[in-house]
Amino acid sequence: MSDENSSLALVTGGNRGIGLAIAQALADAGHKVVVTYRSGNAPADFLAVQMDVTSTESVEAAFAAIEEQWGFPEIIVANAGITKDGLVMRMSDADFDDVINANLTGAFRVARRATKGLLKLKRGRLIFIGSVVGGVGAAGQVNYAASKSGLLGMARSFARELGSRGITANVIAPGFVETDMTSTLDEKRREEIGKSVPLGRFCSAQEIAGVVKFVASQEASYITGALIPVDGGLGMGH
Questions:
Q1: What is the DSSP-derived secondary structure letter of residue 158?
Q2: Is 8 in a helix, a strand, or coil?
Q3: In what helix (H) or strand (E) does residue 214 lie, and over which residues does it extend?
Q4: Which of 67, 92, 152, 188 falls between 20 and 30 A from 224, CA-CA?
Q5: Whole-angstrom distance between the N-terminal and C-terminal Cα of the chain?
Q6: Is the confidence at residue 48, as pLDDT, over 90?
Q7: How confident is the model over 57-68, as a mean pLDDT?
Q8: What are the pLDDT digits (tens) for 77-119?
Q9: What is the C-alpha separation between 69 and 64, in angstroms, rounded?
Q10: Are strands 177-178 and 167-174 parallel, antiparallel or unpaired?
Q11: Residue 133 in 3-state DSSP?
Q12: CA triplet 155, 159, 164: central angle to 5 degrees?
């Protein structure tokens, strides 16, 4: 990207956890960062807009506000997502649909709208935050695994469709990450998970963010349509 240090980056769900760590890493790399949040408070250190990725109107309004104030985002990190775990026999249509709508269709809405600006810029990075679960599956997460698996086919289609315009599309697939969500796991379950990971530990949000920073950089300009695992070896071969 031409003047890499002045690129505008957009991180959805950037107000906490992995999203906030990604926003910080991109800011540290010299990018101007806008984060989106659905509810709660915007983080103090970043430009921020309210966006609900499950609503096309909300996505449109947020992009209009961003473009009017700061220009076209060149680095798009589709990170916003939800879980509604449950065993398949008890999983309702609503639980399945809500997770697909937020995690997969939501990422599509954001990337589709971002593409308008990227085509004008003739360059850009679409970065989708997937999950190791998208490749290996997980009991109790049929909806979540399906949503994260779907990101790969979507990203690779974006990569083929937009590659000639200098726009890359990649999926980064974290394993078990130390976040507010995983901190509630009991010690026994944490130990079980640790043992299942070849590196024997959870990942930090900063380790995910560092890989996003690389994929957003000039050094990664020839990487597109890739699935990049950051999972301590948990999903190897998938």
A1: H
A2: strand
A3: helix 205-215
A4: 67
A5: 31
A6: yes
A7: 98
A8: 999 999 999 999 999 999 999 999 999 999 999 999 999 999 9
A9: 9
A10: unpaired
A11: helix
A12: 160
Q: Is 194 exposed, middle or buried (0-12, 13-18, 19+ CB in 10 A)?
A: middle
- 9: DSSP letter: E
How many CA atoms lie less than 13 Å away from 157 in the CB half-sphere?
8
Q: Which of 96, 93, 204, 111 is nearest to 151 (CA)?
A: 111
The domain 4-225: what is its CATH number? 3.40.50.720
> Which amino acid is present at 38?
R
Query: Residue 48 CB: number of other CB atoms within 10 A?
Result: 20
d(CA 196, CA 201) in angstroms, rounded, equals 9
Contacts for 191 with CB less than 8 Å, ≥ 6 apart = none
222 is catalytic: no
Taking the model in full, what pTM does it have? 0.94
> Quick check: helix, strand or coil at residue 177?
strand
Pick the catalytic residue: 144, 158, 176, 202? Answer: 144
CA-to-CA distance for 102 and 97, rounded, in angstroms? 9
Render pLDDT for 159-215 as a digit per residue (tens, 0 to 9). Answer: 999 999 999 999 999 998 987 767 777 788 888 888 889 999 999 999 999 999 999
Quick check: 1 pLDDT over 60?
A: no
Mean pLDDT of the chain: 93
Give residue 182's pLDDT: 72
Residue the block writes with tokens 């990422």:
107
Query: Taking the CA atoms of the chain, what radius of gyration do you get in angstroms?
Result: 17
